[in-house]
Amino acid sequence: MSGIRTYHQTDLRVPPTESNHLVRQKDMIEYVAGLTKQPVRVALTAPFVGAYNATAMTLTQATPGELVVDGVTLALNDRKLVTAQPDLTQNGIYIVTTLGDTTTAAVLTRADDFNSSVDIINGIIVPVSEGDSYGGSRWKLTAATIPAELDVTNLIFTEEIVDFTKVVEMTFPIVGDDTKELFEFEHNLGSLNVTHEIRDDATGETIVALFRRTSINDVEVEFGIPLAAGDNFTLIIRAEVDPA
User: Fold this and answer.
1) How far apart are CA 9 and CA 204, in angstroms?
2) Which domains does the chain have, with CATH numbers?
3) Could you read off the pLDDT of 142-174 as tens digits, one per residue?
4) What is the share, in percent, of the chain residues with pLDDT greater than 70?
5) CB-CB contact of 45 with 5 (8 Å)
6) In terms of Cα–Cα distance, which of 152, 132, 134 is closest to 143?
7) How far apart are alpha carbons 102 and 56 in whole angstroms?
8) Which secondary-structure segment (H or E) carries 29?
């Protein structure tokens, strides 16, 4: 991939601005329209008691109060997945646009990536970042009718369950040295199907890179540009031992 290294981005906390920059998972999600949405902070699995305004695309709290969901006190602009409205057409991804307190009703507004019919893709996945019960979970959308229509189609979100007692996980360090962009690793998972995640040790964020399985027990990770000294990542390789 020589010839494109016109800029070397070393701080992965900064959103990419050049085509050859490393990207965080959230930057990729924002850039690429696909089946995985940008993560929400929490998932609400009980009804949000309030009034829905289809014109403003808002849910307004019936009784003013602080927004606490799954043990997390929400802040302005937090993303929240609503899964259990009695009117299923109201489910979806919302942003906290007004904080609630003892006198002010909290207001949720549909997020920019879930406020039109074209955003409602059957099978989309919504990752959840925090929460006592649902932090780290993933929720899949099933739309009752295809194509789906916002505020008309029933939207059903179901938590994806993984039996982690059947999952083998191996970790490998990736250490930048200003020269190396291709890293090779060997595991012992044989013919099992494997998935991978590359995590920034400093921030915990997921990093996007090219992952190739070169043989039954060998994989390569390629970043496209040399990793800077101080870029310390962890490669996590997982396999489900008994998927049945």
Assistant:
1) 18
2) 1-32+162-244 (2.60.40), 42-159 (no CATH)
3) 887 888 899 999 999 999 876 666 778 899 999
4) 83
5) no
6) 152
7) 23
8) helix 25-31
Element at 82 (helix H, strand E): strand 79-82
For the segment 2-28, the average pLDDT, to the nearest whole number, is 46
Altogether, the residues listed in the chain come to a count of 244
Give dist(CA 152, CA 141) in Å, integer: 15
Give residues with Cβ within 8 angstroms of 27, minimum separation 6.
15, 16
**SS3 state of residue 232:** strand
- HEC string of 106-146 equals CEEEECHHHCCHHHCCCCCEEEECCCCCCCCCEEEEEECCC
What is d(CA 162, CA 57) in angstroms, rounded to the nearest whole number? 33
- Which residues are paired to 92 by β-bridges? 82
The C-alpha atoms of residue 149 and residue 200 are separated, in whole angstroms, by 38
| Closest to 223 in 3D by CA, of 241, 209, 202 | 209
Query: Tokens for 6?
Result: 């016109």
Q: Are 99 and 106 in contact (CB under 8 A)?
A: yes
Residue 135: strand pairing partners: none
Sign of CA dihedral 53, 152, 33, 134: positive
Q: What is the DSSP letter of 66?
A: -
* Residue partners of 113: CB distance under 8 A and separation at least 6: 37, 38, 93, 119
